[in-house]
TrEMBL record:
Subunit structure: Homodimer or homotetramer.
Organism of this sequence: Rubrobacter tropicus
Protein name, UniProt field: Pyrophosphate--fructose 6-phosphate 1-phosphotransferase
HAMAP family: Phosphofructokinase_III
Enzyme class: transferase
Inhibition and activation profile: Non-allosteric.
Known role: Catalyzes the phosphorylation of D-fructose 6-phosphate, the first committing step of glycolysis. Uses inorganic phosphate (PPi) as phosphoryl donor instead of ATP like common ATP-dependent phosphofructokinases (ATP-PFKs), which renders the reaction reversible, and can thus function both in glycolysis and gluconeogenesis. Consistently, PPi-PFK can replace the enzymes of both the forward (ATP-PFK) and reverse (fructose-bisphosphatase (FBPase)) reactions.
Principal location listed in the UniProt entry: cytoplasm
């Protein structure tokens, strides 16, 4: 019988509790292992607190599938940022009596898991998580479907007010350097323009879309824009508020675009930043199912001793792949998919 530890790292994503529930129930009921949660991600192993080790039984997790967030808490602590910290993590795992670890997180958390496995032989299984959908090792991750649904719903709601006041509303969507959430929400909500970091926006094209709409009697519109979108260098030097690297300051792209659209078209324009709303609330049915399937397979991987592997979705199968694949590259929106969204511009 093993003592299985489990932690969640990085930004929370709806579906994390689904993984925790499935790992716990399968490990206990099918394999007879003991399961403990390690609260607050890798921080739990560097800086333990009174409540760090959270014993998990079947009754603790039975009804958490519908809950957003993570009952284990999270942090962005990365032990590989400081010399000596990886050794501390390994020692702490030993002290907690944890002999198998399930690490649930994005490329940062899984990168740590991989290095602990390679450097110290830590018996670890990874489970991918991100609302951004930017992990190349898996077709998709839980959290993404929920984030797209929330952003779609928000844009649908903004349509009625945009129409009533004859305004353009620019909606800023999360996703860091990948446009997946914006692409999905832009398509699903029939936004008039969808802008992603993978493609530099054409301001003339955007202005002419709204001018044309106004001429045909529709003096309103909706733009879905990813937080990671940057405008041309020429525009930036002339207009936008930039950070020390000359990039649009984070969170500022919707505001910058709104001002630009208003000044070019004369149509009153507002902006909305959806922010962390996109990570909140209850996971969609899809994310509940995917996270449960990931958790079941992760428990199986623990039982089989598939150390250094992570669970992944390939087609309709849950498989295990090398943890190194988790950090391979950022999966971005391919051009042909973006073109599909462009078909509906206007
Ligand atoms: O990676 C998930 C994500 O929500 C990104 O889309 C966003 O850029 C970032 O995390 C926000 O991070 P934080 O929650 O630390 O503000």
């Amino acid at each position: 019988v093993k003592r299985v530890g489990m932690l969640t790292g990085g930004g929370d994503a709806p579906g994390l509790n689904g993984v925790i529930r499935a790992v716990t129930m399968k490990c206990i009921e099918d394999y007879g292992h003991e399961v403990v949660g390690l609260k607050r991600g890798w921080k739990s192993l560097l800086d333990p607190e009174q409540d760090t080790v959270m014993p998990l039984g079947v009754e603790d997790v039975r009804y958490i599938l519908q809950e957003g967030g993570t009952i284990l808490g999270s942090s962005r602590t990365n032990p590989y940022k400081k010399e000596g910290d990886p050794e501390k993590v390994v020692k702490q795992l030993e002290e907690f009596g944890v002999d198998a670890l399930v690490a649930i997180g994005g490329d940062d958390t899984l990168g740590v898991a991989k290095r602990l496995h390679d450097d110290f032989g830590t018996q670890v299984i990874g489970c991918p998580k991100t609302i951004d959908n930017d992990l190349s090792a898996t077709d998709t991750t839980f959290g993404y479907d929920t984030a797209v649904s929330i952003a779609t719903d928000a844009i649908d709601k903004l349509r009625t007010t945009a129409k009533s006041h004859e305004r353009v509303v620019v909606v800023e969507v999360m996703g860091r350097h990948a446009g997946w959430i914006t692409w999905g929400a832009g398509l699903a909500s029939a936004a008039n323009v969808t802008l992603i970091p993978e493609v530099e926006p054409d301001l003339d094209q955007i202005a002419s879309i709204f001018e044309k709409r106004a001429k045909s009697g529709e003096k309103w519109g909706l733009v879905a824009v990813s937080e990671g979108v940057t405008l041309s260098e020429e525009f930036m030097t002339q207009n936008a508020e930039t950070d020390e690297f000359g990039h649009v300051r984070l969170g500022g792209i919707a505001e910058t675009l709104a001002k630009e659209i208003e000044s070019r078209t004369g149509i009153e324009t507002r902006h909305v930043v959806l922010g962390h709303l996109q990570r909140g609330g209850t996971p969609t049915a899809y994310d509940r199912i995917l996270s449960t399937r990931y958790g079941l397979r992760a428990a199986e991987a623990v039982n089989n001793g598939e150390w250094g592997k992570m669970v992944a979705l390939r087609g309709n199968e849950i498989v295990t792949v090398d943890l190194s694949e988790a950090t391979d590259e950022t999966k971005t929106v391919p051009n042909d998919l973006y073109k599909a969204a462009e078909t509906f511009f206007g």
